[in-house]
Amino acid sequence: MRDLNVSEYLFVFSLFSIWSLLLINIILAMGGYIFYFKNFDKEIKEIDEYPMISILVPAHNEAKVIGRTVESLLLLNYPKSKMELIVINDNSSDNSKEILENIKDRYNNYNFTIINTDSLTGGKGKSNALNIGYTISKGDFIAVYDADNTPDKNALRYLVQTIVMNDELGAVIGKFRTRNKNKNLLNQIYKHRNIKLSMDVTSW
């Protein structure tokens, strides 16, 4: 039996690496599924006192979706006195500002703040927008939602109860669902990407 040359060794190593990564992903996915189904019907215990939560939403030219997102966040099943919503309208050139101000007028008894940045203070990416919102936040915990998210009404309560009741947790993440998952191939791919991310996180 002849010895393998360098190219053949590299080929074998590549195959081994690929299959090892696939195996790791399968194990993580299985762990995520097991964790999910074990906790699917688990009742969430109420906590004595809910902490103050600051919800940050960075948005750049998101006029098509920002209205639905903001209203769903304002109507979350969480004590209103313990929640503030901060939307960072990051140097948008569409009518996001008008949409947000209209919502603020209709929900004037809610703790809702709009930050409008310009080309000098904003337009430098999501992390910069979040930092701007963070500087005025008052919450004990920070929740971040994208401008096109529509969370379940109990999502925030579930996440807060989970992290408050487990001292070992430093952060929590919800399950992703793609709203228009069947619209086209790209959305189908994005749906499976989000499922995979959720499973990986919950299996750690």
UniProtKB/TrEMBL annotation:
Q: Which GO terms describe its molecular function?
A: glycosyltransferase activity
Among PANTHER family, the record links this protein to: POLY-BETA-1,6-N-ACETYL-D-GLUCOSAMINE SYNTHASE
Q: Does the keyword Glycoprotein apply?
A: no
Membrane-spanning residues: 12-36
Xref: InterPro entries: Glyco_trans_2-like, Nucleotide-diphossugar_trans
Question: What is this protein's name?
Answer: Glycosyl transferase
Record-listed E.C. numbers: 2.4.1.-
EC main group: transferase
